[in-house]
Amino acid sequence: MKHYIVKRILGVIPVFFGITLIVFFMMNMAPATIADAVGEGDASSAAMRAALEANLGLDQPILVRYFLWLKEVITGDLGLSYRTGQPVLRMIGQRVAPSLILTGTGVVWAILIALPLGVLAAWKPKSGWSKLASGLTLFSFSAPSFFLCLIAIFVFSVKLSWFPAANMYSAGSGGDLSDLIRHLVLPASVVCLGSLGNLVRQTTSAVSEVLGEDYIRTARAKGLGEWAVLWKHAFRTALIPVLTTILNHIPHIIGGSMVVERIFGWPGMGSLLFTAVNGRDYTVIMGTTAVVAFAVLVTSILMDIVYRLADPGMGWGGDRS
Amino acid sequence: MKLKKILALTLSLVMTCSLCLTACGSSQEEPSASSETPVNVNYGISNAWDSLMPYYSVSGSNYSRIIYDKIYDRLAYVQADGTCLPRGADSWESADDGYAILFELNKDAAFHDGTPVTAQHWVDTLALVTDPVCEVYGRAFLSGLVGTDDTGAAVAGEKLGAEVVDEYTLKLTFKTPVIPNEFLVDYNREIYVLPTHLLAEIPAAELMSNEFWLAPIGSGPCKFVSELAGSNLVLEANENYQLGAPGFDTLTITVMDKANLLTALIAGDLDYYAFGGSVSEENRPIAEEAGFTVLEGTVPATFYELMLNNESISDAKTRQAINLALDKELLCLQSAGSMGFVTDTSILPGTAYSGPEAENVYDVEAAKALLAESNYAGETLTMACTSARASLAALIQQNLNEAGLNVQIETVDSSTMFAGMYDGTYDMAVASHTPTTLPLWFTASRFTEDNNLFRVADLSYYTQILDMIQMETVEEARVALVDEFEAYLAQEVPFVPLWFYYSLHVQSNTVTGIDYPSSSYCNENVWQWVKEG
Amino acid sequence: MKKRSSPVVQRFLADKLATACLIFLGVEILLLLILPLFLGQDPNLTDKTAGFWAPPSSAHLLGTDDVGRDILARLLYGGQISLLVGYLSAILGTLLGVPLGLLAGYKGGKWEYWIMRACDTFQSFPSLILVLCLVSLLGPSVWNIILVQGVLGWSSVARLVYGSTLSVKKKEYVEASRALGATDKAILFRTILPNVIAPVWAAFPMKVGRAILSESSLSFLGVGLRTPQASWGNLMQNALELITLTTRPWAWIPPGLCIVITVLALLLVGEGLRKALNPRGNL
Fold it and tell me: How many CB pairs under 8 A join A and C?
């Protein structure tokens, strides 16, 4: 097992370099702009710009710059935001918790709905549960998150005034939990709906596949209760593909929640990234993108290990893909 | 069995994580425990500020200045009509035949650490930010001081025009004669006093990125408590502010989407939002229905113009054609509703320098005729605008198309837009500015070698006439010179003046004492704000 | 494989819902192309007589927007753009992904290693974030969105093709054709490709749908297209203003519904294709 973990970690090293290369490539697509986009006033002074470019290392050859930058990234130095002058890592650090709260809540809700619904739909394929499941799946796949956000705000904030339409806390509320939850309901529901479709579909198909297996039929024939069959066998076996789905969709969920964060003014990484894109704050854009990608990578390794712990039959040899 | 455990573990881990984070998040923001509930003013703003170092504002935007205004102190408080009231300075007077201004500083002013603010602090601050090794953004406004070059950086070997006369008297000396009130109207919003006694240890070159600015100390009406960069800033009232303690305990500034500000105010999430609770005419009924009083501004708060790149649009005929092709009435209606009025000059109406009321010179045929005579050969011109003005830009594009000009629109943020105008990336851009009552508030700083925003090839006439106007102290002669200059601008059209806009202010139902219109000068009288607990 | 194509069509047509959706998608394209001709309204031109934000009337069936442009015309032209971006970027992604997946699966070794690691790398980025960054760097235009979405869309196709190539590669008929002296190229394109392409077909409509969704998100955020170009996404931007959200539902609900219905139809066509191509359900 240790051997596997080491191998898995070594395996992601090329991916790590791939990510840094892509990020660095993007950063170099607009190097002039970094120095250009300095505000009204002194930006026109050539000396000032030269100093700034030297400061950003823009006067070095590209390969040197890549390794200099890589060294800094590895030591956790993502540079300073040219807009706020603060360390990028610090700015991202402040945004991690809100983002995790939002996406975490959304995904947990989605799991709590999707697992029972998927099992029910697979168990009684002709029932209303099944119709509900497929309806929800289709809706989840086809409705763009910003449209859901607008409708949620329109109905629940404006018309019914049940929930606030913006921010994480009421301004200056001191941040108590009930206030947070009130603000969390709408955006988290949109995130939940967005990831629900995949989860329901995976659960349904995994459970129905398992229900067709011989040993389930045997168990049933032996007179084991339906519930016992469902929970003891079908559900547990189906869990693996469901976990995989969650794992594979983490990037999509993060990407999707960026739009949600933007509309609801949620102070997470998505808002940070959006502000940075608008303000051409390239160090922040690159830093955020890289951190998200690394997070996805690390999560995939962790999930992979959990996955194998959960299913010893998988063994510790092969590659997951 | 094993599986169940792992599943339970994973799920509970996720749950506890999010719960923990929630708890952490909330505990961070918990205000310091006190016996009574502190009175908090919730302040909304639509754009984020930059670094909390006031001379390191990359965007140079008013969103940053209005924040600095709280933490740091300025010389004066400028009201919407251009009158200046005492703030950091009690009084000021002209000296040395108009070449210098003497500021009598307030003797009660103190930094948040208790150190009194003295003339030495002001002088040290100016010496620091004019230091060439100090990487400040935007010190061009200091280029008027003796001992600086055109960029506002100190010239080696020359004595800087900022001196200590006595402990509480500051003397600023200028290259040309300066009227104190005009100086303050123009530059008060950019000059802050820094706690230089705390910065002495930091090398000037490293000052901007120093950790000091993560938790800064100033001498303004509010003290820094905590910041979530780009999102949230918590300040507390400075009980010892020389003009009086603000009538609240804490001020929480939250960045919100522009569209959400009014909603949040109505919902009671906000007490006030910058700038001056401004609201569009379209949204006015919403505010009034919700029980808010809407105040109409009495002084134009915004000047709109179409910046032109005089290098790429080199023919004055083309620029005149652009001016004629724009249906300013329609554009103004789209952007400002009935709260705007079109103009053909940057000079505010109602001053000694303003001419007769502007007419709408919209004339497509005349524009076409001029264009035919010009050197414009059908090339595509790039017009930059911010995303909030994209609709307006689309309308301008239609106007110009009708006259035969091809235009494509680039939607960028404002600092990219200005930078692109400086370096010639864009051919035109839609911009707005806060006007002042001075005749040269707009033109004086935009036609210099160093700040040639419109990329005019030959600045000699501008330099000459601007100098003459600034040196002239007799009002009639000055009016005549300004008229001459305006006539030249009307011929040359280096930029197209569009309209002035009066703000509408939604008045707070919870905080009293707010001077709404004056926020257009990036200062707010928070020391007079009162919120009942 | 060719012989089986008619049963596939038959099986697909037997699925009434999927067939209806396919017809709908065809009709939608036709309508988006033809209706503007009948409407005779320029999507980018202000109607000065109607004014800004005119409510729906006979002259402007969906009213006018904040610039006084006909919203229905913008909806139709915007639809052309949204669909163009959706279909073209899905095609581009598939064209890139299929050969790379084939190479990785068939050649194995270094090819497999590097292509699959590149796949991992691209899939580590939330696609919307990467698209947002790249489009903001390249500048807004329809072609840049298509290019970026297309190029970034290769990895999921490649992974799909790679998986099926691995299993097909070991089949007897591949061994047989190799024994008969067929070249790598011939084996890849004549023997393996027809056998691995089915899941790609089935996934294609979904890919189009995703591309439409991601384009509309970008445009909604105001990053994708150059003003005054319309798309279903940026037509809804105005709804961020409270007054539009609450008092002018005709301005933002139609484009939203258009997106939902189009993506839904694409999904159902995809489902239908999946069942038709793979009646035993082991895809």
Answer: 132
With a CB-CB cutoff of 8 Å, which residues 173-202 of chain B face chain A?
none
Residues B409 and B287 in one domain: no
Least confident of B6-10, B29-33, B170-174, B267-271: B29-33
Chain C residues with beta carbon closer than 8 angstroms to that of B394: 44, 67, 69, 227-228
What does the pLDDT average to over B46-55? 87
Residue B265 and residue B374 in one domain? no
Contact call for B395 and C67, based on CB within 8 A: yes
Contact between residue C35 and residue B362 where contact means Cβ atoms under 8 Å apart: no
Contacts of A145 in chain C (CB under 8 A): 217
Q: How far is CA B71 from the centre of its chain?
A: 16
Average pLDDT, chain A: 78
Q: What is the pLDDT of residues B338-370, one digit of tens each?
A: 889 899 999 988 888 887 777 778 999 999 999
Could you tell me if B510 and B496 lie in one domain?
A: no
Is the pLDDT at C161 greater than 80, yes or no? yes
What was the ipTM of the complex prediction? 0.88
Instruction: Give how far B475 is from chain A: nearest CA, Å.
Output: 30
Q: Whole-angstrom Cα distance, residue C242 to residue A85?
A: 34
The number of residues in chain B equals 533
**Whether B152 and B136 share a structural domain:** yes
| Nearest CB to B18 within list A36, A100, A161 | A100
For residue B190, give the CATH number of its domain: 3.90.76.10
Answer yes or no: do A15 and C120 touch at CB < 8 A: yes
Chain B neighbours among A 242-261 (CB < 8 Å)?
A: 243
Q: What separation, in Å, do the N-terminal and C-terminal C-alpha atoms of chain C show?
A: 17
How many domains does chain B contain in total? 3
- Peptide linkage before B303 cis (omega within 30 of 0): no
B437 in the same domain as B314: yes
Question: Domain containing B444 — which CATH number?
Answer: 3.10.105.10
Which chains neighbour C (Cβ–Cβ under 8 Å, 3 or more pairs)? A, B
B202 and B271 within one domain: no
Angle at the Cα of A258 from the Cα atoms of A252 and A259, rounded to 5 degrees: 105
Residue contact A296–C125, C-beta within 8 A = yes
Assign B491 a pLDDT band (cuts: 50, 70, 90). Answer: very high
Q: pLDDT by residue (tens digit) across C217-250?
A: 999 988 888 888 999 999 998 888 888 888 899 9
- Domain span holding position B247: 222-299+503-531
**Domain assignment present for B11:** no
**Residues in CB range of C140: below 8 A, 6 or more apart:** B410, B411, C223, C224, C225, C226
Mark whether B337 and B474 lie in a shared domain. yes
Best interface-test mutation with C: which of A277, A292, A298 has the largest number of C CBs within 10 A? A277
Q: Which residue, among B137, B150, B155, would best test binding to A if mutated, counting the most A CBs under 10 Å from its CB?
A: B137
How buried is residue C205: exposed, middle or buried, by Cβ count under 10 Å (0-12/13-18/19+)? Answer: buried
* Shortest CA gap B232–chain A (Å): 9
- How many angstroms separate the CA of residue A44 from the nearest CA in chain B? 6
Average pLDDT over residues A291-313: 76
Q: Does residue C256 sit at the A interface (CB-CB below 8 Å)?
A: yes
The number of beta carbons lying within 10 Å of the beta carbon of residue A90 is 15
Q: Binning pLDDT at 50, 70 and 90, where does residue B5 land?
A: low
**B2 occurs within a structural domain:** no
Of residues A184 and A31, the one with the higher pLDDT is A184
For residue B132, tell me if it sits in a domain.
yes
B206 burial type by CB count under 10 A (0-12 exposed, 13-18 middle, 19+ buried): exposed
- Are B83 and B169 in the same domain? yes
How far is B247 from chain C, CA to nearest CA, in Å? 32
A273:C236 CB<8 A: no
B/e letters for B163-176, b = 16+ CB within 10 Å, e = fewer, are bbeeebebbbbbee
Closest in A39, A105, A168 to B60, CB measured: A39
Specify if B484 maps to a domain. Answer: yes
